[in-house]
Amino acid sequence: xxxxxxxxxxxxxxxxxxxxxxxxxxxxxxxxxxxxxxxxxxxxxxxxxxxxxxxxxxxxxxxxxxxxxxxxxxxxxxxxxxxxxxxxxxxxxxxxxxxxxxxxxxxxxxxxxxxxxxxxxxxxxxxxxxxxxxxxxxxxxxxxxxxxxxxxxxxxxxxxxxxxxxxxxxxxxxxxxxxxxxxxxxxxxxxxxxxxxxxxxxxxxxxxxxxxxxxxxxxxxxxxxxxxxxxxxxxxxxxxxxxxxxx
Length: 247
Fold this sequence. Notes:
The chain is mainly alpha-helical. The chain has one domain. It has helices at about 10-35, 45-60, 65-90, 95-120, 135-155, 160-180, 180-185, 185-210, 215-245. The protein starts with 10 loop residues before the first helix and ends with a helix.
């Protein structure tokens, strides 16, 4: 993905990722439950949609982050259903968590080793992550792992969706507050934070769905997510116009 389409690290980046996680948790359940596609049948359609976003993005020279966030939501939606496949197979949560955690760990370590050898653009002082193909695969694994973790807290540990959201938000807040440059320079720390976002987002999405209904929850979380991005884009345009008028 072109660098001009990738958002920079910062408070807005992580806030948008949290909102995308909640929205993606709802869209995943919406596809499987409301549209009756189950946890597997919808995945090929999501894969095609993701491919279209990546292909179209290559030919767009304008500067915005719509493609990135569209891809994130598609990946998150897919990860929700992939994570829920374990329920269909009656697999124990610890086993599923271990499998996804190991896969993510190996993926990130391999990527990190390759990145160091090839000296990529990202690294110390970088303000955006390199969205190479392995990045999206790692995001998919992190999303699936976060889905299983969120469900485990809510239903396996019987904390309920609200208490799980609050409980998982604590380590997430600590990771974001004290991560500092680790969030930009260390892939393992970055994806650990993403897993926590996905886990808390899963619990939050389920809480909203159980409270106001899945359809309305999907609509509301989607509107909040898109409206937030639109507001930030408008603010950026206003700031840019102000700078130009002042020169």
